[in-house]
Amino acid sequence: MKLSHVAKRSLLLKEHEFLKVKPLSNEMKSFISKYKRKAEDNIGGDTRYEDEKSNQNERDEDEKSPNQEEIVSVPAPQTTLTTSVATMMPNTPYTKKQNDAAFLNKVLQDVQELVKYEKEGKSLSNEGSLCNVMGDWDSDAGGMQLRIDAGNNTSRTPDIKLVEREPQVEGGFLCDGRWNITGHLPFNHSSVMILIAVSNRRKRVATFIGECRICEGTETITGDWMVGRGSRNCKDRQESHTFFSDVLRKNNIRPLQKAHLKEITPTSTTTS
To answer: For the region Disordered, what residue ranges are annotated (predicted)?
Structure first.
């Protein structure tokens, strides 16, 4: 709503009387004059911008011919990228490592299949059958080799001798102390075997119960050792016994050497 002329004059008189009582400071006067000039400049700039815009529109209208059609630019459709990063960059180090790893895995699988096929081909008919306990056996838990021979005794009580493995193994319980081992095959037509080892030096006794079978194409005697010593008191009775699981694997190096020497002996005799 617009003020009347009388109201404006009354307002100006009241403002003039207020300024007489409380005049403005010099800082306030400079502030008002500064922003008053700035407002006038903005108004003038807006009018100049409107004039220039209207003149530009008039020039554009004059340049257009009456028969000329407006050309509308249509943006090209964006195509989605369906090619994978590995296809666009086939020689990056990341994809090269992936290809090498896949190739190595394939080679390992082929080798494992060949080994499995060879073992199955050789021992498919004998898998799980009983094996002969006579021979040289490498003990994993004992760390020594047990040479089991019938000798002059019957097959039920074979002779057993402890020798070092080649290469030597450290950490087996049979490696420390001198052990005397005796064996016993309690049943006929069976591969169950009982071993008793005694160490007088360390005053320990070890017993082994195992069975000889052909498993995965290899002759093995699988069983458990119980190693005992004298207890110190009543509470030490259970701790004085130790249990080890063991797998004795047949070592055929010595029989092969004997067979080889047997083959070459007649040849050397005739040549001499």
So the answer is: 42-78
